[in-house]
Amino acid sequence: MEPVPNDQIWQQIRAEAVRDARAEPALASFLFTNILAHHRLEDSLSFILATKLESPTVSALTLRDLIAHAFAGNETIRQAILADLQAVVTRDPASRGYTSPLLFFKGFHAIQSYRVAHEYWINDRQTLALFLQSRISEAFAVDIHPGARIGKGIMFDHATSVVIGETAVVEDDFSMLHEVTLGGTGREGGDRHPKIGRGVLIGAGAKVLGNIRVGEGAKIGAGSVVLHDVPPHTTVAGVPAKPVSVPAYAFPALTMDQTIDSPGEADPQAG
Ligand SMILES: CC(C)(COP(=O)(O)OP(=O)(O)OC[C@H]1O[C@@H](n2cnc3c(N)ncnc32)[C@H](O)[C@@H]1OP(=O)(O)O)[C@@H](O)C(=O)NCCC(=O)NCCS
């Protein structure tokens, strides 16, 4: 899918908010304060995340400033926000346009909040980053260490009970369902978490453990326990996970095809 310019997405979001406010007057004020009162997507998102992450001792106003500061002039985060929004809109049939993830999908909220925490982590503000990790975990049931490195075009569908460890790396165009762990085995220190290639799709409840590599375009079946490298463009499933097939598409994350494809029938380079 071709990237849509920021302005175009923001205008689309505002049009959706106006439509929804007309259709549901009880939410008109909610739609105004979260979307229509703002001039840019980043401002709207800062407000939305701040109101979800506030705590009795750190106000939404303080958090909004901190989030806006992390977004300000940061082209990498800006591009990632847009790519993540587009990822949800194109991959999740439950999404009714851009306002669904922006307002309601906690997988999207968790990833954008993580991006803020990561920004503070890499700029030597670890205490703030850990505070945000803790609030993200409490608010969204998604526990991502701020040191983890996550690309863009990411969708966490449902997102409840997700754990991603400190040294995990997730490349672009990744999708996963709920209850996924990208964790350690407890046997290793240092670099101890999985490395996930581009276009990978991970099914609900899968546990990927240790400093292993899941190759690009791989697919992991629901409930699998993955303890070894997964070759690119391979479907694995089971406990412990074993190769079972070849995905029908080069990047299963993009199609969200959650079936186990028939062995030998698929073209791994097919779009
Ligand atoms: C750590 C762990 C992966 C096993 O480590 P280990 O004791 O070194 O064992 P190995 O990886 O050598 O595996 C030994 C055998 O048990 C199997 N095995 C290991 N963990 C398994 C699991 N969770 N379920 C099913 N089989 C498992 C392996 O496939 C292997 O089988 P094989 O000998 O036929 O090849 C496993 O005990 C575990 O799941 N620990 C919990 C880790 C966790 O929860 N991490 C999340 C942190 S956020």
Describe the 3D structure.
By secondary structure, the chain is α/β, with parallel strands linked by helices. It folds into two domains: about 140 residues, serine acetyltransferase, domain 1 (Orthogonal Bundle); about 120 residues, Hexapeptide repeat proteins (UDP N-Acetylglucosamine Acyltransferase, domain 1), CATH 2.160.10. About 40% of the residues lie in helices and about 15% in strands. The chain has nine helices and 15 strands. It has a six-stranded mixed beta sheet. Helix 3 crosses helix 4 and helix 4 crosses helix 7. It is globular and about 50 Å long. The relative contact order is 0.08. The C terminus is likely disordered. Bound molecules: coenzyme A (COA). Coenzyme A binds next to strand 7.
Strand order of the largest sheet: 3-6-9-12-14-15
Bound molecules: coenzyme A
CATH hierarchy, class of the largest domain: Mainly Alpha
Runs in which pLDDT lies below 50 for 5 or more consecutive residues are 265-271
Proportion of helical residues = 40-55%
The count of β-strands is: 15
Distance between the termini: 11 Å
Reported for the largest beta sheet, the result is:
6 strands, mixed
Q: Work out the count of structural domains.
A: 2
CATH homology-level superfamily of the largest domain: serine acetyltransferase, domain 1
Q: Radius of gyration from the CA trace?
A: 19 Å
Structural class: alpha/beta
Shape call? globular
Would you give the CATH topology of the largest domain? serine acetyltransferase, domain 1
Strand content: 5-15%
Order of helices and strands: HHHHHHHHEEEEEEEEEEEEEEEH
Number of helices: 9
The mean pLDDT is 94
- CATH architecture name of the largest domain: Orthogonal Bundle
